[in-house]
Design brief:
The chain is α/β, with parallel strands linked by helices. Helix content is 28%, strand content 22%. The radius of gyration is 21 Å and the shape is globular.
Length: 437
């Protein structure tokens, strides 16, 4: 049942031996370097399509979207799974979350029959086309200092975040997953999408409920994951294609705060922005981002947004200060990203993870606090930055919502809130919105 398999032309295949950043190789054991291998196109009848050029205005905000980190368009897929001799057993045995990242195995995409259903377009790479240098230079000159949370998500950061989702304190993922399972058929029945677009797809663990509902309603499904981490996108695509022979994937490696206009179109798209990531914007930035999505939508498109709700401060505090220290490692990894990409000399261990709830703003703030006075040189910026003892750098905000505040936000962006789904405990909400009129 359903359409025949779509065949795509692949220009480049990346062979990955282990999804681990170089900084952690000494701690995890030697790993090989990625290699680029050229292959002939799989179908003479298939053609590569270059996304239309254009520009997008990035919304001004105190803190922009967390998911999300040149402009060459490529189709890519990874090959050669890690050999048994290279694998490390018992990945959870290491106490240090960074060591557990290095041992946290990830799938790879094989070049075979499953690759006939996969196309990956690369719009952003860490070393080209990234806004990292500009963001860091601007943020560290501010008072107080800030860093953009979208730069958390290199390969290590993406894996750490996936581990955060499994901590007992972090209620967001399991609550949203259960809610999606409950409402997926209703959402797909109402929106009848021909493609599911997910902004900041990560491990795509919550997406399965929607994809399976699409298959139940339509026989096949097309999935368009958009993520700044190529490794995370390739790994999640491998797992999905392994499990679903009725699925086609067109992945886009992109910064969705800049490349909304280059996300592939379809007759009717359900655009999903899950995990409460909208809260990483301040209210002005969230409105601007939603307006950008609204401008990219066409008639028949719908938007499904995960929104963390206001709740008891103790529950929020625990969620961002897990006992295992995974969130702390995730926060400090941002300094590793800057060290690697901008040739900086941050002493990562000289900064302490801090997360606190500000009830007057209805948001969590995540910060890095200098344990002592220090100076940091960032060669790519050609300057030095001083940090006083106890000085804090804000790395993320996570705003919390009520139905009333969410409805007002959508309306300000030119969208209409059509459905508001919540679980019994009221911890989280999924908002289904569409274009006015």
């Amino acid at each position: 049942m359903g359409a025949p398999k779509r065949r795509v032309r692949r220009q480049r295949v990346v062979a990955r031996t282990r999804p681990v950043e170089a900084e952690y190789e000494a701690r995890a054991g030697a790993v090989g370097e990625p290699e680029a291998v050229e292959f002939e196109s799989v179908s003479e009848s298939a053609t590569d399509s270059e996304p239309e050029s254009g520009s997008a205005t990035e919304p001004e905000s105190e803190s922009e979207s967390a998911t999300d980190s040149d402009s060459d368009s490529e189709s890519a897929t990874a090959t050669e799974p890690v050999s048994e001799s290279e694998s490390v057993s018992d990945p959870e045995a290491a106490a240090d979350p960074l060591e557990r990242v290095a041992l946290h195995g990830a799938g790879v995409v094989e070049h075979g029959e499953r690759a006939d259903r996969l196309q990956v377009t690369v719009l952003v790479r860490p070393d080209s086309g990234s806004t990292l240098a500009a963001d860091v230079g601007r943020g560290l000159r501010e008072v107080p200092k800030t860093l953009e949370p979208k730069h958390f998500y290199d390969d290590v950061g993406s894996t750490l975040f996936d581990m955060i989702c499994d901590t007992p304190e972090y209620y967001v993922t399991r609550t949203e997953e259960a809610l999606l399972e409950e409402i997926a058929d209703e959402v797909i029945g109402e929106t009848s999408p021909t493609a599911l677009v997910e902004l900041g797809s990560g491990a795509a663990r919550k997406t399965r409920a929607l994809l399976e509902a699409m298959q139940r309603h339509h026989g096949r499904a097309t999935y368009v994951p958009v993520d700044i981490s190529e490794q995370a996108l390739e790994s999640s695509a491998a797992a999905l294609l392994e499990d679903y022979d009725w699925l086609d994937i067109h992945g886009v490696v992109a910064d969705f705060t800049q490349h909304l206009h280059r996300v592939p179109g379809a007759e009717r798209r359900l655009i999903a922005f899950l995990g409460g990531t909208l809260g990483n914007f301040d209210r002005q930035g969230a409105r601007g981002f939603l307006q950008g999505i609204r401008d990219a939508m066409t008639e028949g498109d719908s938007l499904l947004v995960g929104m963390d709700q206001v709740k008891q401060p103790a529950i929020l505090h625990a969620a961002y200060n897990d006992a295992a220290g995974v969130t702390a490692a995730f926060n400090r990894n941002l300094l590793q990203v800057i060290n690697r990409e901008l040739s900086a000399d941050f002493d990562v261990d000289a900064f302490e993870h801090v997360a606190l709830y500000r009830p007057e703003l209805q948001r969590i703030e995540m910060l890095l606090e200098a344990r002592s006075a220090q100076s940091v040189t960032i060669e790519a910026l050609g300057r030095q930055f001083d940090f006083g003892a106890g000085e804090r750098v804000r790395t993320e905000i996570s705003s919390k919502f009520t139905r009333e505040s969410a409805e007002a936000l959508f309306a300000a962006a030119g969208l209409t809130l059509r459905r508001w789904y919540t679980p019994e405990n009221g911890y989280f909400a999924l908002a289904l919105a569409g274009i006015d009129g």
